[in-house]
Amino acid sequence: MIRYALLVILNAPIVFLGLTNALTNYKLHKISKERFIGRLAIWLVILICVALAFPIYNYLSGRELFEIYDVSLLNIVLTTTVIYLIYIINHQRQKIELLENTLRKFHEEISIKLSEKK
Amino acid sequence: MKKQPNTVIIIPAYNESIIISEVIKTAAHAAKAQNISVDILVVNDKSTDDTSAKAQKAGAIVIDHIINRGVGGATSTGLKYAKQKNYHQAATMDADGQHDPQDVMNCLKQIKVAKADLLIGSRLSNKHGMSLVKRIGNNGLSFITWLLFGVKVSDSQSGLRVFSRKAIQTLDWQSAGYEFCSEQLWRAKQAKLVVAEYPVKAIYTKYSKSKGQNNWNGVNIVKSLIKMKIKEILG
Description:
The complex is a heterodimer of chains A (118) and B (235). Chain A is mostly helical. Chain A contains 4 helices and no strands. In chain A, 84% of the residues lie in helices and 0% in strands. The longest helix of chain A has 45 residues, at 73-117. Chain A is elongated and about 75 Å long. With 235 residues, chain B is α/β, with parallel strands linked by helices. Chain B is 46% helix and 15% strand.
């Protein structure tokens, strides 16, 4: 049981960070409502899965296709890494998108300005 | 000082030196015949030929892109110019001579009649001259646009579009390629703009056929649109 608690303790802050980012970006009008709902759904699903890891493992361990054993420390590290990577990827993709948008606007602006100077 | 017209016709162009002068002159002539005062703006998307010089010589305002961005990017620059110069109306038409300037003028009038913010010149209401493959492709892309973005139009890929002042001020999109046609409709829906259609004819010459979209490009457009939708949902 202590290992499941560890899984939650390690992952909950990442999930809350993801949720906070989504909410902040939405409130600052950086993302649309549709996008906010999508991101909220992803992080909530992750949060539910982490929180319910113990019953989920119990349920799956008896199934033929899964053959899951009790959660190991390695499982905890791997799960935490995956969730952290989801956070990082999302964060970086957002930054790239912002940069692309800035560059696009800059190019448009500079093309117009230069053409006017001709 | 000469008063600026209320309307601008935006022509995104890439390596169109063969035909650009004729397109500009026929558009200007059609506008004059209809007593519509227009500016013609050519957004030269870093052509490697003398499209820019020829457009300037034909009397158009020319914006030269520093880098090649694609038709969506060039149209976006044109609309940004229209926004900065406070035009009341803007129209976009292809540089390959595919559109009849008379249709552009009709659409400019029709947008007011329809009380629309974005008017699409639909080539699919009059399919004459359009090959079966192109017809299937255009219908397919319109269907996908409806499926993904919930915007129902008969010709989602038409380059002949007219924008109201409200649309000029509010519309913004990110796609630089041909997929911008569908994205623009999606953004219009998100901005609660009124979208309408008006039948136009497409002039398919050997030249315009050679310059139009490749059928395989349709596959790329579908891929980009799906990616766009997933990106929007997943954040």
